[in-house]
Structures are given as structure tokens and as C-alpha cells.
Design brief:
Layout lengths: L16 H10 L7 E6 L17 H10 L4 E9 H5 L3 H4 L9 H8 L2 H16 L5 E7 L19 E5 L10 H13 L5 E3 L17 H14 L3 E4 L5 H13 L4 E4 L11 H11 L12 H4 L1
Parallel strand pairs: 1-2, 2-3, 3-4, 4-5, 6-7
Helix pairs in contact: 1-10, 7-8, 8-9, 9-10
The structure holds zinc ion (2 copies).
């Protein structure tokens, strides 16, 4: 396995990046319709804490009406911890990872169960089987526990497993990152959300993370049958182009996701276009993601 103390390169450069920026700013029309498999809502009753309050299911429907030529579908995938825990400052990652006493308090009071019932009800109401799906974004704590009751999984069209724990130790960040990734890969997920965002401070828009790290990420996703997500919320342009090429070579499915937190991000389908174009892989040749449930 690739280790921090073997870190002797800073990855590769996208040498045509500067030329490519010209096209980035000019793009007006989508080349085809896009799905977005990973998106949040911030409206009442706040199943995700981080998005703006105006980002409701109705806002997604409006977007599909306004920009019919852009969108194929949206999956609404709010945060498991925000559903399970009431206070935003406690629910957000880090604060409950090391103390299960907090989630347990909400479980024992019945709050978590009631919230998940509400969440499943909302999902049943919004799901139309074609343009709107209901799923969830989950993560695990330091003991590999997650905050989703067993009965909930069957009610989700799509499950995304994510690492939100940013490794901060300069000497062990690679091992720490892969430890979290391995843990989340044990859950029955369709794909890993933003698979290298937790270590994005070690790359730039023009320089990738060390290729050895990206190759190992691809291998781990491939071995577990996970699709590769191209996530537009915090663009990692150079990393995403590299990952897309490797995933394509291995025949992996690709899930394009806005990971929407603000209505302003609806325009980020352009990021998908740019990453695919820069990869030089014809879009028609990509194996597009289909949720496991929809394959049955
Ligand atoms: Zn996430
Ligand atoms: Zn997300």
C-alpha cells in the first residue's frame, strides 16, 4: 500500500490546462442531458444542515422545468447524521465520530427513528422512478458505526458512502485517508462520494495528487464494485480527469454528481462536460452509473 513516508512526487500536470480554460468559460449548451446522483436539500425539516434554506425538492423540480435540455434526473441524498441528530453543531462530522454517546441519546429518545420515518415518507412522496429518486449519504464514526437504522436501507434508491474526515497529520495522512476509505467501503454503497475530497489540500486544479494514491483509490473502488463519482461541489479538475481515465480503462461505472448545496450550483453541469472533454474519452463510450436497485 502507498504510504506517507514514500511520498516523493506531487502527481502529474495537465499541460493543456491553460488552453482548456478558454473552452470552460465559453460553454453555453449541454452536449446531452446529465443526471446528478448526489444532491442535498436545506429546506425545512433540514435533512441536511449545510445547504441554503431555499434549496427544496420543489426547487429541483423547478430547475428541471426551466432547463429541460440539461437534466436527466436528480437523486436527493441528504446527510444521515443530519437526519439522526438534531443540533447542527453536533451533527456535523468530527463532533460525533469519537463519542457515540451523542447519537445514542437521540436514538434512545426516539428522535432518530421519528426523523428517519419522516425522511422515508418524504422520499416516497418525491420519488417518481424516472426524474426524481430518494437516497442517502452516509459515513461512519471511528468505530465504523453509522447512523442509519437497519430498516431504512431498503427504502433508499441509492446509497452514497462518503469520507468527511480530513486527515491532518502530516506524517500519516495517506494511511489515515485509506483507513477511512476502507471503513466506508465496508458499507453496502452504490458508490463513494467525492472519493478524494478529504485529501484535496494535497492537490491543485492543475496538479493531481500522487498517481500512486489515485491508482490505489481506483483499485479499492473497483474491488468493491463501486462506481467512480465525478463530484462538482469542490472541483478537483486534474484529479477527476486522471481518475476518469483510470476508471474508464477498468470498465467502471461513472456517476456524475453536483452534490448540490446552493441553487447557484445548478450550472455546474459544465464541470462534467469539461472533465469528460479533457479526458479525451468520448462520452458515448463511458459506462454510466445505474443504481444497484434499478438493475434488479
Ligand atoms: Zn459529502
Ligand atoms: Zn454530499
Amino acid at each position: 500500500m502507498y504510504k506517507t513516508d514514500r511520498l516523493n512526487s506531487i502527481g502529474g500536470t495537465l499541460h493543456t490546462y491553460n488552453d482548456f480554460c478558454f473552452y470552460w468559460s465559453q460553454r453555453k449548451e449541454p452536449s446531452h442531458k446529465w443526471p446528478s446522483w448526489h444532491n442535498h436539500t436545506g429546506s425545512f425539516p433540514r435533512f441536511s444542515n449545510c445547504p441554503t434554506l431555499g434549496l427544496s425538492v420543489e426547487r429541483y423540480k423547478l430547475e428541471m422545468d426551466i432547463n429541460k435540455e440539461v437534466w436527466e434526473l436528480f437523486a436527493i441524498t441528504d446527510h444521515a447524521h443530519a437526519i439522526a441528530i438534531e443540533e447542527a453543531n453536533i451533527a456535523w462530522p468530527y463532533n460525533w465520530y469519537d463519542s457515540f454517546e451523542i447519537p445514542e441519546r437521540y436514538q434512545k429518545s426516539g428522535f432518530t427513528e421519528q426523523r428517519y420515518r419522516q425522511y422515508v415518507e418524504r422520499g416516497d412522496a418525491l420519488r417518481d422512478g424516472k426524474k426524481l429518486l430518494s437516497g442517502i449519504e452516509v459515513e461512519v464514526d471511528s468505530q465504523s458505526r453509522c447512523l442509519v437504522p437497519d430498516w431504512v436501507w431498503d427504502h433508499m434508491d441509492i446509497v452514497i458512502g462518503s469520507v468527511h474526515h480530513n486527515p491532518i497529520n502530516e506524517k500519516t495522512w495517506v494511511e489515515d485517508f485509506f483507513m477511512y476509505l476502507d471503513r466506508i467501503l465496508e458499507l453496502p454503497c452504490d458508490f463513494i462520494g467525492h472519493p478524494v475530497r478529504a485529501i484535496r489540500r494535497f492537490s491543485t486544479q492543475t496538479h493531481t495528487l500522487p498517481h500512486e494514491i489515485l491508482d490505489e483509490v481506483i483499485k479499492k473502488l473497483y474491488d468493491k464494485g463501486s462506481a467512480l463519482e465525478i463530484n462538482a461541489h469542490y472541483p478537483q479538475f486534474a484529479d477527476d480527469v486522471y481518475l476518469l481515465r483510470r476508471a474508464y480503462e477498468k470498465g467502471m461505472e461513472i456517476a456524475f454528481s453536483l452534490d448540490l448545496h446552493y441553487p447557484e450550483e445548478f450550472g455546474n453541469w459544465r464541470y462534467f462536460e469539461d472533465v469528460v472533454e479533457m479526458s479525451e474519452i468520448p462520452f458515448e463510450k463511458l459506462k454510466l452509473f445505474i443504481p444497484k436497485k434499478m438493475k434488479k
